[in-house]
Design goal:
Elements (H helix, E strand, L loop, with lengths): L12 H10 L4 H4 L1 H9 L3 H25 L5 H10 L1 H33 L5 H17 L2 H30 L26 H13 L5 H6 L5 H30 L5 H4 L2 H8 L5 H33 L17 H21 L2 H7 L2 H23 L16 H19 L4 H21 L23
Helix pairs in contact: 1-8, 1-11, 3-9, 4-9, 4-11, 4-17, 4-18, 5-6, 5-17, 6-7, 6-14, 6-15, 6-17, 6-19, 7-14, 7-15, 8-11, 8-14, 9-17, 9-18, 13-14, 14-15, 15-16, 17-18, 18-19
Length: 468
Amino acid sequence: MSHINELQHTLKKRHITMIALGGVIGAGLFVGSGAIISTAGPAAILSYLIAGIIVTLVMFMLGEMAARNPDAGSFSVYASTYLGQWAGYTVGWLYWFKWMITIAIEALLLGSIIHDFLPFIPIWVGAFAMTVIVISSNVYSVRSFAEFEYWLSFAKVATIIIFLALGISILLGFQNNVHPTVLSDLTASGGFMPNGMSPVLAGVIVVIFSLGGSEIAAVASGESEDPRKNVIKAIRSVVVRVLVFYVGSVLILILCVPWTDKAALKSPYVSLFSMAGFPLAAIAIKIVLFISFMSVMNSGMYSASRMLFSLSRRGYAPALFSKTTSRGVPLSALALSLIVCSAVLVVHFLSGGDLFLTLAKSSGSFIIVVWLFIAFAHLSMRRGLGDVRRGERQFQAWFYPYSNWLAIAALVTVLLSQATNPASRFQFGFTILVFVVVIASYLVLRNRPLFGMSRVTAAGDPRRLNLD
């Protein structure tokens, strides 16, 4: 094991591009969209538009900071630089914790799919086996992770493109088996927003959870051959990903599958393919879901390990986790992530899973907190720079500072809506509790030699942190 403690810049442009494209395509789109449509009605499209606008604005803020200083620690580094050490510590550990929960969820879902195809394999065996398999793609080198993720993302993107082509053919009248909904039908069963605004806002949280992989491209660009150029390309693709993949495909579902058809919306993509005459649609989509879960686990394990590596480099975690192999892999950080995810799975299977599944729904709230830190850090950075003229190659976030305050207001509104909704009040309380515990741990540990926060960055480094 090397003690140079450096990551390698070996990712190609195609890796970053496909990681960016596939990073947000997961079960939240293939399955979660049906649940949102069935509760919010045709107004579900608003959930996707609101979340899409928020993620686009926030990712452009992240992109501007990353273009100035590409780093595997990404928004945690920028929070430290522009808001103070407490912010970098807090957002970094919250993000790592969020991935521990999410990776365990994906492992459970993979175990369930394996059990469906091969009933003699228990769910717990499949879940642990997939966790080991996915982490193996991260252990050898960053290129092995990226190559694995490239083909997983390629399969997801291809599926969405095929679905969009099918949907367009239905809307144009080329599929005799499916008759699209006319616009007047969208308001026939209780109106465009039959259940009010509450399910629309609840849907925003689900969509934000689905879009929670958007920041992975900024993390991965820190290990690419041309970090600044690649992160700009990846962030700019956010608009395409959100408008085409999410808003476009959900709009097709709303126009082709009646929102009152609860049975069809349990697996909306399967239903639409089946109605169009594809008898093996259920099996095909289940395979795509399997690939999606693997992709999320793969990206999550990578992102979590790099965040832990960055936290350690800056004195926010024990120095052990900043050590890398000769190929630039933070093996100790990966090992801890594997141990924690495995422990979460053990707790789930021993306890029956009810409490764990409830806590798992808080993942979307953690992403909201992360995005709030990004918006505030960008606001602080731009204020420190003063008036900045747009250079020929300079990347800037849209509509500063109005976009910052709009995103902050929207994120806070969505987060607080959880507190007023009995179904999500527990998740809101759990998120606040974890947030307070992490900040308290910073106050306790910041002067301890184990972390040594006073040594994090040498003077003169452009990333030098604020010391409270």
